[in-house]
Each structure stands twice: as C-alpha cells, then as structure tokens.
Design goal:
The complex is a heterodimer of chains A (209) and B (163).
Chain A lengths: L7 H26 L4 E2 L3 E6 L3 H4 L6 E11 L3 E8 H11 L11 H26 L3 E3 L3 E6 H13 L4 E10 L9 E8 L4 H14 L1
Antiparallel strand pairs in A: 1-7, 2-7, 3-4, 3-5, 3-6, 4-8, 7-8
Helix pairs in contact in A: 1-4, 3-4
Chain B lengths: L2 E4 L4 E6 L2 E8 L3 E7 L4 E7 L17 H14 L8 E6 L5 H7 L3 H16 L3 E6 L5 E6 L5 E4 L7 E3 L1
Parallel strand pairs in B: 1-3, 6-7
Antiparallel strand pairs in B: 2-5, 3-8, 4-5, 4-6, 8-9, 9-10
The chains are: A alpha+beta (209), B alpha+beta (163).
Chain lengths: 209, 163
C-alpha cells in the first residue's frame, strides 16, 4: 500500500483516531503544567516531502524539536515542535525557575525530553488501545536548530520509499495570556510500510461498530 | 541587485549572474554547488540520499547525491559551461542527533558526504571547499556573480561563514 491509495475514509479515520490520542496527550500536559491545554482540530495532510519544512513553520524557523520513533505493531515517527520561546517558558514553568537564556542546560533538556516522552506515550497508548495495536515510543531525541535541519533525517527515511509524507498534525496551546503562552505542534508521520497495519486496524474498528 | 531563487528539497537549479540560489535548513541533507567561473554559470542541489539502493523509489533521481551531481553537470555543460572548469563545494551532512548514530553505525549525513566526494572524484571535478558534518543546521546562499557561498547557521559566534 502507498500513501496515494489512502481513501477519504482512511484520512477521516486517522483524523479521529489522532483526535483521541491527542486528547489524552493534552490531558497529560495539562496536569504537568497545571493549566488547561487547548487543542486545534487535527489536520491530516498528504504532501510532497519538499513541503514538510514549510508546514512546520518554515525551514529556517528556529525550533526545539523532540523526535521519537514508534515501535511495535506499526512504525513511524513522532515530532513535537515548540517555537524556541515556548520551549523556554515550558522549562521555566516546570522547573519553577526564571525564564532565561540557560533554559537548555542539562536539566532543561532532560525536562523537555520528558515532556515529549509523556505526550507521545499517552498519545500512542490511547491510539493503541483504540486500534488494538501495541505502539511504544523510543527514547526521545532533542535538537534546537532550524526546523528544516531538525526534521530532514525523517524526510530522508521517507524518501527511500517515495516522495510523499503523510502528516497528522495537531496544534495545541496553554491558557496563559500573551507573554506566557506555550504553543506547540504535534506531528505523527507513519512509515508507508505500516499503512496497511493501521488501515486494517481502522477497518476492524468499523466492523465492530 | 541580486535575485534570490529558492532550491527545494530533492531538486537542483542552475542559474547565472545576478541570481543567488539559496536552500534553507540543511541537516543531514547536502547542498552541493557546481560553478564555472569563466561564464558565471552554476547550480545548487539539495539532496537527501547518497545513491540508489535496491528497492528504493527511483521516481525522482534528484534526491540522490550522485545522480544530482551528474545531472547538474550535464545541464551546466549543455548551457555553455565547461566540464573542465567546473568546481564544486559541498555543505551539510550534519548529524543532528548524536544518539541516532549510535543506533545505525555510520550516519546518513556522513554517507552523503562520502558519496559526494566519490562522485566528484569520478567526474574529475575539484572540490574547492566544504563545510560538512557537525550537529547543526545550515542555510546555503550561492552567489552566481562571484561563485562565493555564504553558509548561515544559528550557532553562537559563527552565524555566517563565506566559502
């Protein structure tokens, strides 16, 4: 199966499954930061790999990216992208210290990786129990650089199989006003080789309904 | 007044003065320039993978380092450049996540760099400059009027270096 063979129904189902997964992730993040976290409606985009950096806010945009591989019954990658300032605020808030330039010292990096781990685990856990699949996140990796550079290893992986990427994206933000707002994007990029597993699981979902 | 033209992922463009070709946010990918100084004609490629392996998708050869260099050299020669005068510069091939390398042996960035050097050597194109490896992203601006390449990064103290 290739990305091109996905039907509208498949994409709708992915959007719905992702919504459930992201709901759980947002609850986890709310508890962590102690404020309500709001979600936008998930977007499912099938696009040329060349367009992916633009969809992440532009290739030169400096971001903090946390990536995790998905292991288990299906493979793929999760990327959590925070604008630099949001990542700094998040670290400051979680560690109850001043928001400063040294946000990404060892403990800061470790903190934000753990945020990635918690979000990915709750997302995959919810998605997995819905689809009856075992989905486990790898340890998180972090890079603080231009968005294009942070994610191009994923595009390299995808380009071995074709020229397209399937991106399931959710934007979220906290409830603090203006200068304390935390925003981020959560991306799920399934491997093309795992599409059949996911669409079969979604099909099974419909059969049971 | 120079005009900027963007080179996207898995493509190359050729141009002449007064254009600047630019590609943004290279991580493990490579930015490869070829330039004939006598006619101010050159090209910039943004490649993802070293060379095709069995089972890989071949619908867009410009994502490969070796094919891009050959196709770009051919197109430059077809437009009036001389193969004997072409000079190359190579940028990128970083390893953004140290742990990825531990899992997979030689990093994809490193394999891209090696492939570019080998292909250039096979074609007899001298490598005039390179800034490769490391763990940071690069934006490459190639000025066709001068043949100079400006490499921008977000590292402290080394935001812009010209090659």
């Amino acid at each position: 199966m290739t990305f091109k063979q996905l039907t509208e129904e498949h994409l709708d189902a992915l959007r719905e499954v992702s919504n459930v997964g992201m709901g759980h992730a947002a609850t986890a993040l709310s508890q962590l930061v102690g404020e309500t976290v709001y979600l936008h409606v998930p977007q499912v985009t099938l696009t040329d790999i060349a367009n992916v950096p633009d969809l992440l806010g532009g290739p030169e945009q400096v971001v903090v990216g946390i990536t995790l591989q998905i292991r288990g019954d299906a493979q793929g990658n999760i990327i959590l992208v925070f604008p630099l300032e949001s990542a700094e605020r998040l670290v400051a808030q979680l560690l109850a210290r001043d928001h400063g330039p040294d946000a990404f010292d060892e403990i800061g990096i470790s903190t934000i990786k753990e945020v990635g781990n918690i979000l990915a685990s709750s997302y995959l856990g919810a998605m997995g129990s819905l689809l009856n699949l075992t989905l486990i996140p790898s340890i998180p990796l972090l890079a603080n650089d231009m968005a294009g550079a942070v994610i191009d290893f994923l595009l390299i992986e995808l380009s071995e199989e074709g020229n397209q990427a399937l991106m399931i994206e959710t934007e979220f933000h906290g409830s603090n006003k203006d200068d304390k707002l935390i925003r981020g994007h959560f991306f799920l990029l399934p491997d093309p080789t795992s599409l059949v597993v996911i669409t079969d699981a979604i099909g099974g979902l419909n059969d049971n309904a | 007044m120079t005009m900027r033209e963007r080179v996207g992922i898995s493509e190359f463009k050729i141009a002449t003065t007064p254009v600047s070709l630019v590609t943004y946010g290279l991580g493990s990918c490579l930015g490869i320039t070829l330039y004939d100084a006598e006619v101010c004609l050159g090209g910039l490629a943004h490649t993802l993978l070293p060379r095709p392996r069995p089972g890989m998708d071949l619908s867009r050869m410009t994502k490969f380092v070796d094919a891009s260099i050959r196709l770009m050299a051919d197109e430059l020669v077809a437009n009036g450049a001389s193969m004997a005068r072409l000079q190359a510069k190579v940028f990128g091939g970083a390893n953004m996540f140290a742990a990825l390398q531990e899992w997979s042996g030689e990093s994809i960035g490193q394999r891209n760099i090696v492939c570019a050097r080998e292909t250039l050597a096979e074609l007899g194109i001298p490598l005039a400059a390179e800034e490769v490896g490391g763990n940071f992203g690069r934006t490459v601006v190639f000025n066709l009027a001068t043949g100079k390449v400006l490499v921008k990064s977000v590292r402290e103290g080394q935001a812009e270096v010209e090659y």
